[in-house]
Description:
The complex is a heterodimer of chains A (578) and B (283). Chain A is α+β, with helices and mostly antiparallel strands. Chain A has 17 helices and 24 strands.
Amino acid sequence: MRAAKFKTFLSCRRVNLRTKVLSYEPAAISAVLIGLIILITFTLGCTQKEAPKEDSGVKNKEASHVKSEPAYGDAIIEGSIGDASNLIPELASDSASHEIADLVYGGLVRYNKDLITEGVLAESWDVSDGGLVITFHLRKDVSWHDGKPFTADDVMYTYKVMIDPKTPTAYGGDFLQVKKAEVLDKYTFRVTYKKPFAPGLISWSIGILPSHLLMGKDITKSSLARNPIGTGSYKFKEWKTGEKIVLESNHNYFEGRPYIDRFIYRIIPDSATMFLELKAGGIDWMGLAPFQYKRQTENAKIKKNFNKFKYLSFSYTYLGFNLLDPRFKDKRVRQAISYAINKQEIIDGVLLGLGVIATGPYKPDMWAYNPDVKKYEFSTDKAKELLNEAGWKNTDKDGILEKNGKKFEFTILTNQGNEEREKSAQIIQRRLKDAGISVKIRIVEWSAFLKEFIRTRKFEAIILGWNIPPDPDLFDVWHSSKTGPDELNHVTFKNAEVDRLLVKGRGTFDQEERKKCYFRIQEIFAEEQPYVFLYVPDALPIVNARFKNINPAPAGISYNFIKWYVPKNEQKYVELTQ
Amino acid sequence: MKKERFWTNFWKELRRNKLAVAGGVVVMALFVISFFAPFISPYDPEQINVEEILLPPSSNHLFGTDELGRDVFSRVVFGARISLKVGFVAVGIATVVGVFLGSIAGYYGKLADSIIMRFVDIMLCFPTFFLILAVVAILEPSITNIMIVIGLTSWTGVARLIRAEILSLKSREFVLAAKSIGANDLVIIARHILPNAMAPVLVSATLGVAGAILIESALSFLGIGVQPPTPSWGNILTSGKDNIELAWWLSLFPGLAILVTVLGYNLLGEGIRDAIDPRLRRR
């Protein structure tokens, strides 16, 4: 599951998009399947899936272990705000598609519950030549859902798809670092890198595609986009667009047959409606919005019937400036805006305290996180001072600053459907007004947002989110070479030292060495404020209490999804299980 | 003399209609509230206070607070301003365009009539609300754009009314008299015909205000109308929808405001129509 790409989190509620490069997280709502989305994706979401910390789900563990034996059967229904776009994971960058694809496909490796790399389709691997060569020994007992055996040719095919410039994938970059890929025998695959590449191993968490079905065909026109065939723990059954996606357990799965027979992904594009469905029993699993977590799930009935969880999500939300705009080129202006925003107020008001202040692109429990960077304590006076220094003065006494006769006015863009972002924008608007800056808010539907504003760079400031992959490599988001229309450095941040550190950080396997690079990068970000890093929200999944063996770990709750079960006497959808 | 009797009768009729009077009172009250909004509302409607999120109605906050701790009463009061503004400007645009095109069509007839009335037919074929949605989605959503768009999509009714009136008026003696002394067309239309054709326009405008307020609320509810932080009844309702289980007051009060306002305009409009239309006049 790593793979190092980025999805944009867009909104918390509502979502969906079909864009190749940026993808978002329907977050709040689409609970928590995959362990982590490893690709960096734009998050649409607010609260988000994956990645755990504490368990507020009270009696979860005891209850699940004391009573009753694991049993096969039953179905789980997860609610999601957005529909999937394409079930070939290489071609989709939205989190809904990846969530389904992660169950249907498997990679060579993945992160385990403690975020350590472990084998999936690769039984083991040898690293040689100072990390330049990785030899994967593949499992011999794996077959595709259509019965054909899985071999090294499939891996080779997937690699070729990823490096083919015609493949519309956002995730090709890591594979272009490979100098040579070879199939040594039916179950041995070797890659050789040009130079040391730290995210190399985990990039092979990308879902492996069936070469016998795709070889020689145009992948963009493949029927697998809607009828995927993989090696994963669940088989695809049906997809009703905008309604639901149904998967069935793979009885021959090499890690053991999943206990839950059926996985249903229901699309409900409104968080309040989804919560009503949850209470009515129409869905079993969703991500809660902060208000739902704090005020609507605290009664005895909910506590008895559901387990809820809370942990820091792998995502952060930021206010990004278009650095091509001459006003935002001045560092003092960006710093002033940071001072003018009260981040704690946003966390209290929008997240109801369910989150922490972000100081950079990592979250506090990662090894790459630097706790000692410059912080911007809320101070309207300091903001005004800096703005004055930068030449912005209130000359006509209307409360709005001017420079060369032009008022300081700009528009914050954000995507529709993410209530948390809309509210944050309003709080920021208010605070900046106090500092003498007039802000307009414009809320745009997600796919138009990406196509017409992000791609074309036609924005002044945006509120968006990124997910945070466990590997700290941020080359794709911050390197000055990544400013093309479909690339992810959409604020056009260019800093020679950061460029150097990014290359250095991914080019060594020594964690201490890497840590130094990323610590320094965070110091630069803190000083430069290309984004105002706002907050890291908590993920707030809630699951029906009949599902047992859910054990939160650093990777979230869904890493052991195939081990979840419902005791025989509590099974709800019995008729489904022959 | 004749004119004065018309208005005296009109007032008498209108006053006898209790519902119309109630509607009139509501409309007047709205004007007062809008005009004195800063004095009536106890708080700044845009003041965010994260310590007072979603408080139920109390003596401090008459209508409770919203999801950012803003006072709902103040927001509803200021929302009245937006509604009135949108209602009147939109209807103003519709009336001006409708009267202009309707007069030309009715007075000149023939080709002008055909072209304008077929254009009206085309406009009527579009489902108005979706046309507005499409236009607002292309333009940047703002109060000004909404007023213009609503205005430019709702003039067809007025145009048809005016045309019909003019068709029946233009062959009347006083028009012939004006023509015979050499008055030009503009003078005839503006001085002689239009004043006599305005009664149905007045009715349609009053009802039109109610329609425009509803459309504005619907657009704001969908998030493409009045943009935050400006309060409008529609966007207060949106937060009401998002928090419907937690905060009934967020849906109830702006909803009531819309209901009462639209009802008021409709009652008044119907009252005016009854008072003007001699056939409906009771003895």
